[in-house]
Amino acid sequence: MRKYFGTDGIRRIANTELTPELVYKVAKAGAYVLSKHTDHTPTILIGRDTRLSGTLIESAMTAGFLSYGAKVKLLGIIPTPAVAYLTRKLKADASVVISASHNTFEFNGIKFFSNKGMKIPDTLEEEIEEVMDSGKLEELTAQNEKIGVSEYCFDLINEYIYFFRKNFDDTIEKHLRDDFVVGIDTANGATSVVAEKVFKDLGINYRIINNTPDGININENCGSTHLENLKKFVVDNKLSLGIAYDGDGDRCLAIDEKGNEIDGDKLLAIISTNMRKKGVLNENTIVATIMSNLGLNKYAENNGLQLLQTKVGDRYVLEEMLKKGYNLGGEQSGHVILLDYNPTGDGILTSLMLIQTILEENKKASELANIINLYPQILINAKVNENKKYDYEKDDDIKKAIEDVEKEFAGNGRVVIRPSGTEPLVRVMIEGENQEYITKRAKEIVTLIEKKLK
Hints:
Elements: E1 10-13, H1 20-35, E2 43-48, H2 54-68, E3 71-77, H3 80-89, E4 94-98, E5 107-113, H4 122-132, E6 150-152, H5 157-175, E7 181-185, H6 194-201, E8 205-209, H7 228-236, E9 241-245, E10 252-255, E11 261-262, H8 264-278, E12 285-289, H9 294-302, E13 306-310, H10 314-324, E14 328-330, E15 336-338, H11 347-361, H12 365-369, E16 377-383, H13 396-409, E17 414-419, E18 425-431, H14 435-452
Parallel strand pairs: 2-3, 2-4, 3-6, 7-8, 7-9, 12-13
Antiparallel strand pairs: 1-5, 4-5, 9-10, 10-11, 14-15, 16-18, 17-18
């Protein structure tokens, strides 16, 4: 069991749990682990979102890197995928994003990226933890002229903006219509300024909301985790499409012109259809996770596509894509990885792929979203003893209850059980054709798990 890192880096309450002292240690150990095979002074990029605690964590992180002897480039407020892109482009040795993604402002987090612009694997996170707790940190202290220096590089965000112009300018301009207007919700987060510049440069008509961050309002009743306001905004203003990003900009969800949600599974279906038509969908394959809707499986089956599923987490989706050479993958939550462009989920990139598809097909967003039928889904958390949350697999009564439900579905439903990586919870997800039925069965399994694993 890892002590500091969870399923997506380190994420805790800023300044009380994620303290400057802890951040300093993580930075120093991370700099060592991520650059120990280089023969030069490492260069590390740091980006952050709009949280109040961002500069506090950034300062501690910078101090840890400089103490090790690394050079630091401070990118300021910038989306996570922009940091990943710039890490590769600038040939940096590593990078860090300071963000708690879709969580509220009191949380903050640390995500490390390798020199390839990819989230580091579990093995490297474990190695960083070992160094942190080994007493070795004092040995990693640079002295005299070897102490590192930092510099502000806020203008590097323009490289990321140019990346979109280079890849989408011609196709979008060719098909753009005056009556096509997009609503954008930037969650008062890292895309607040960048998204507007990208849409303006590409000539796309847009209306923007939740783009006035104050350090506290990030993800507050807005963005990809709170779609109600955007749905109303799209319908009330008769917009063609709504786009919602999360706090650090690596996710995107959409709203069609009727106010209906287009989730990550629908985005994968829409984008895969367009890519396949152009002959650029590698091996006609989509990579998703076990939490993707059964409707995505059925869509793939009915359209001659292969769907591969990994455990939950975009890093595992990416690992599978890299292993087999696939170029499209993602999660229901809106993390979509388009590997031909960027090795991480990228909200702005995903939204532009969707917009490009809508314009090229000359269809409404709702028409494109209808190519996939999603099954009703219920997710309920069972509260259990932290030390017993993985024991559900060993309990005969729990196993039988799950098997009984799956037999009843006969291929038109499924049960997914997943222990939380950070809390004393076991997540019970059931899909099927009848919402009332799956809710009843999920509650029964949750009650049994809580009774057995208390």
